[in-house]
Amino acid sequence: MANQDNKLVWNEEVCAGCGTCERSCPHEPRAIAVNEGRVVIDYDLCDACGVCVKECPVKALSFEVLA
Q1: pTM for this one?
Q2: DSSP strand E in the chain: where?
């Protein structure tokens, strides 16, 4: 279920660039991509479902609550 009160954020310092987030994104086209080890989030496609956050092995993704 979408949660429009949250925004997905990426922690570059923690990220391993493994691509698990991209592979786990249930949307087509994907809302998240890994390019040269950097995560790119398409906020027009991301509905904050949380799958990528749950699957990230190093916990480099999280949600920021929008005011």
Answers
A1: 0.85
A2: 6-10, 32-35, 38-41, 61-65
